[in-house]
Request: fold
Amino acid sequence: MATQTVLQKLEILADAAKYDASCASSGTAKRTSMGGKGIGSTEGMGICHAYAPDGRCISLLKILLTNHCVFDCHYCVNRKSSNVARARFTPQEVVDLTLSFYRRNYIEGLFLSSGIVKNSNHTMEQLVEVARILREEHDFRGYIHLKTIPEADAEIVHQAGLYADRVSINVELPTDSGLTRLAPDKDARQIEGAMGRVKSDISELKDARKRFKHAPRFAPAGQSTQMIVGADAATDADIVGKASRLYDNFRLRRVYYSAFSPIPDASAVLPLKRPPLIREHRLYQSDWLMRFYGYKPAEVMQATEADGNLPLDIDPKLAWALKFREQFPIDVNRATKEQLLRVPGLGVKAVGKILASRRHRNLRLDDVARLTLSVTKVRPFICTVDWRPVMLTDRADLRSLLAPKTEQLELFTA
Reply:
């Protein structure tokens, strides 16, 4: 077989990494090389191929160490039975690429995952070696996210956390039955056991740093995970319940959702087409409701329809409000913060401004309109000094009135 160039490997292994969505760089400790020491920085933290709050486009070098794999997960394009082009980096090649891209200002850090080559321990050691070389030999102070392997020895995974800003272990699928069916080489208890050990290491070393100034950091940006949506029969209610348990049990920073995408030479047990991308978006919205709006998982599940899935035409917050109309309308001049956060169309910032403004005067509908993108969505659920919805809240066609209007675009319009 002809020897591959680094560029050819990069083309294969960057493409192979695109299915992993859990590559955010938020929450890490701030480090910088502005003082003339080291290379890199974690300033300007963000998500791969995304825009930061200040409008900057930022990115991580997101690649696999190798797409060779001894596992045969049905949903994975890199499974051992898949007929795809294979490539493998050495740790030094990944280091050289990271430094080269950083010096060209292409990236702010590295997201590194891998297929399982030889065995789990060998692969995990190679991933750790990349991070070790960057940190110890090049004093690299940029962001590093390592995807860890639950089947690897705990000590090797521990070493990963000492070098990386964030570590992650994918739970892959929302249900144990789905994992057993589609990923026969993986075990749900083993995955959660590894996540539990990472949680303990983070807690122990965080406590040690309070007592000892030079105690090492361990994954200061925490751990995250990812679930594939639509590869099995799991409903959105199943996914929301699983995400909630993961947050509670392992103190995860994020649970990411990745809509299943059909792959070459797909297994017969997989769906023939991907789920609507809007389903992935609705799950992220439900995740936001639990993390920032005070909704309990059971309440988010109440927003689902008869099939257990969240509606696609409206967001979960509106879906919940329509099901529990007896909670509305609420008076924006008297309601608690928790009640205001339940109003469709009001975000966290808008609620904060309402609470601050009403200390000085009673709010009118126009005042609320200036704080939200769509007062039309808010009106049926609130009262102000000059507005009461009367029968609007109870209208049978309220959902159709508030659902975003779909529009068929024409290809050749002027």
